[in-house]
Design brief:
The chain folds into 2 domains: about 70 residues, no CATH class; about 190 residues, Vaccinia Virus protein VP39 (Rossmann fold, 3-Layer(aba) Sandwich). With about 290 residues, the chain is of the alpha/beta class.
Length: about 290
């Protein structure tokens, strides 16, 4: 867990005096994030401050450091440290058929829309290690739509993309995923999709034959195609309002007319500039259709 704001990192070292001076600490964090952007091109400057702060202190703790400045020194001069920090800063909490009720609603309300298209383009933004990408591939296969679909699975983090491509997931999570799959309206036996191999569960490679995994930064990169569905679940909650608005404009520009935007359960279109351009398909699920 991340260190609470009033506590120093549990390293056994003396507390960093700046940790007790929020204004100075914020300056150090802003300098670190600016340095990361200018040196590596990753832009975390508009991420929610409290979340970024917790993740930075987690890395400071694990490296046995005592200050943001010490972390900045390591990050700017050691690419390997930047790779570690990127894993901390990018959001990688996911599961297969996460929030099963969403998949039930998607089958009932979105799949009929997709049947009207000769070819379906889906963008899964912030796909992390790929569990939800494989979930969508299974759903499309079971609905007879996979062979005329293309899923673009993107993430800022190349490390997690490589894990997604490998398609090997922990065996000890298969019971949880099986339960999710059944509650999500799965039509087959979940165990048919994987075999126990390489110390984990290796999923059928045919599930990714129509998937393109690619690095993409929602903060700095532009739209790269026109899509019938854009999924970005549980990513925007880590952005501040300004950055959320910027990313929503990117999604709007990326969606074809009457395309579908899917957000996480705690995310919203309220107060965004394109709020009036969408209709919510099936409340309470955050599934919206672009109507103007």
């Amino acid at each position: 867990m991340a260190v609470p704001i009033t506590e120093a990192p549990a390293t056994g070292a003396e507390p960093d005096p700046l940790a007790l001076k929020p204004d100075l600490e914020r300056i150090e964090i802003e300098l670190l994030l600016e340095g990361i952007f200018r040196h590596y091109g990753f832009d975390f400057r508009a991420y929610a401050y409290a979340s970024i702060r917790r993740r930075l202190w987690k890395r400071i703790d694990e490296e046995g450091l005592t200050s943001m400045s010490a972390l900045q020194q390591r990050v700017l001069h050691e690419p390997a440290m930047m790779e570690k920090l990127l894993l901390d800063l990018s959001i990688n909490v996911t599961a297969m058929f996460r929030d099963p009720s969403f998949y039930v609603t998607f089958r009932e309300h979105v799949v009929p829309l997709l049947r009207t298209y000769p070819f379906i383009r889906i963008w899964h933004a912030g796909c992390s290690t790929g569990e939800e990408v494989y979930s969508m591939a299974m759903l499309l296969r079971e609905e007879g739509l996979y062979d005329r679909s293309r899923i673009y699975a993107t993430d800022i983090n190349e490390v997690v993309l490589q894990r997604a491509k490998a398609g090997i997931f922990p065996l000890d999570r298969m019971q949880e995923y099986t339960d999710n799959y059944m509650r999500a309206g799965g039509k087959r036996s979940f165990s048919e999709y994987y075999t126990a191999k390489y110390g984990g569960a290796l999923f059928d490679h045919s599930l990714t034959k129509n998937v393109v995994f690619s690095q993409h930064n929602l903060v700095t990169d532009r739209s790269f195609s026109e899509f019938n569905v854009v999924l970005c679940r549980n990513v925007l909650i880590y952005f501040d309002k300004t950055l959320q608005s910027k990313v929503h404009s990117l999604f709007y520009d990326s969606l074809a007319m009457f395309g579908v935007l899917v957000l996480g359960s705690k995310e919203t279109l309220r107060f965004m500039s394109h709020e009036e351009c969408y209709q919510q398909i099936a409340p309470p699920e955050k599934i919206f259709r672009k109507v103007r």
